[in-house]
Give the backbone structure.
Amino acid sequence: MNTVFIALARLVDLVFNLYIFIVVARALVSWVSPDPYNPIVRFLHNATDPALYRLRKLLPFSTGAIDFSPMILIFLLYLLQGFLVNMLISLGNTF
């Protein structure tokens, strides 16, 4: 049973790392004027817009030209990733 939790922890870790990479790519693409009809740009927007939109609604301030929401989202994802992965690993080690 412990191997299942360890494998699940690795899978959760991989999914979080991939999503963090997608958020970073979205932030980097936003610095240039991307073609909005490009399939890669559309994927990046579709994958990150729901989380970034909710986070922007929760932020108490507006910074104008600088958008801190991707950075805050990455920070929150790292916190959640560390918590979930460590919890799954510790569950795997107890069985």
The chain has three helices and no strands. Residues 2-29 form the longest helix (28 residues). The helical segments are 2-29, 39-58, 69-94. Residues 1-31+68-95 form one domain.
